[in-house]
Amino acid sequence: MDFVSKMTVDLRNTLLALTVLLAVKPVVCDHSRRLELWDSGKKGTSGGNGDLVTDLPGQPNVAFRHYAGYVTVNEAHGRALFYWFYEASTRADEKPLVLWLNGGPGCSSVGYGATQEIGPFIVDTHGNGLKHNPYSWNTKANMLFLESPIGVGFSYSNTTSDYNNLGDDFTAKDAYIFLNNWFLKFPSYRKRTFYIAGESYAGKYVPELAELIYDMNKDPNSLQIDLQGILLGNPETSDAEDWRGLVDYAWSHAVISDETHKIIRESCDFEGNDTWSNNNCTEGVDEVLKQYKEIDIYSIYTSVCIGNSAGSDDRSLPLMILMKRTSKTKMIPRIMGGYDPCLDEYAKAFYNRPDVQKALHVSDGHQLKNWSICNMKIFEEWSDSKPSVLPIYKKLITAGLRIWVYSGDTDGRVPVLSTRYSLSSLGLPITKAWRPWYHQKEPLVQVSGWFQEYEGLMFATFRGAGHAVPCFKPSNSLAFFSAFLLGEAPPSAR
């Protein structure tokens, strides 16, 4: 019996109890907006109005509302997840709701997605304040960012043993309960068209959560979430295809030698159960990782940022690599998805400010939380990772969900080849052949990338973009996101 089947009964009982408990709380009416907001009267689970952000330091003036705070997912354990929700900048009542997730595992969707990539506010240099992002995705949708699982960003549990259970399944279950309780805070969004988007290791989070929602929707007693599709950027998808693509991409982009590539191709069985027990294989992969330490694996043509390089003999770019032992002979390398110490320090400075934490309802401004953009302990101790989510793809395609996948083509971490290998293994019929797509705001209407349509899936590339595509191509990304929401292919003519 799979994870979803085993947990359905427990989740149903838990959510029914929560629904009954929260439904009897008094309703607070905000007459200026004609929205009913639930107020539980408890810290960390106040109504949406109590989570309204009103005095965020350095915030540009905006016409939309945004909310931040905690949603309890397990009251007995004292387990709560932090969210930041931005209403659409115009006509919020008419636009869909999109949940954004970053990966790692262990990295913050607020630190990356919300305030470096696609949110309306970008953290300024040195964490001094915020600047307006004209390409924010909340111009097209209501955007919800979740720090998940516990231990990421501001999310926490008061039960120490919870941290020993972290993995894909735990994360999906808590995210699902979060959504149920979040909809109780914001009841006007309960029946809103809903999408899930994310990048990197969220390539596993997103389809796993989508599968759970799809299965739970079959139960008439469960909250019916109107999930219509998923959007995935440079996603980890299948361990075997991800590794094969990483190696081939490094070779085809002259990062490694012909000899190293030949050794890996001949000695590494990425589909096997003992891949890393082969010494020739591990030595070959070690050489790939060694060479990638010399450049930025997340954007191979970008100049590297080397911390304290003037006084150091180590001129290599920091690359977070974990060799996790699963048996006496098997070592699995894992590379942090999204780690960039030179880019992230100002986000850390901003979110650890007392006035910022108070404004976001995570502390009183005196007893501060220790926020970091990635939790290395979670990354190192991640115990449950599905080797492939391709079976979930097949299930969601059969269910008729919209699935779009995109790749920045200068990313070496989850390169375009990895994604192409994974999608090719699905064997989907091609409905519209490979062709370029364009973005009208490009100078002289340049090619933004290429795309191909399959039966049940769209795949596109972003030319010249690295791992976190919106950081490199913000205007193009927004146009692509808009096309996804409309279910229309991006422009394929100049």
Automatic annotation (TrEMBL):
GO cellular component, one term: extracellular region
Cellular location(s): Secreted
InterPro entries per record: AB_hydrolase_fold, Peptidase_S10, Ser_caboxypep_ser_AS
GO biological process: proteolysis
The enzyme's E.C. designation: 3.4.16.-
UniProtKB keywords: Carboxypeptidase, Disulfide bond, Glycoprotein, Hydrolase, Protease, Secreted, Signal
Enzyme class: hydrolase
Gene3D superfamilies named among the record's database cross-references: 3.40.50.11320, 6.10.250.940, alpha/beta hydrolase (3.40.50.1820)
Signal peptide positions on this chain: 1-29
GO terms assigned for molecular function: serine-type carboxypeptidase activity
Coiled-coil annotated spans: none
Family, similarity comment: Belongs to the peptidase S10 family.
PANTHER family in the cross-refs: SERINE CARBOXYPEPTIDASE-LIKE 32, SERINE PROTEASE FAMILY S10 SERINE CARBOXYPEPTIDASE
This protein's name: Carboxypeptidase
Organism of this sequence: Juglans regia
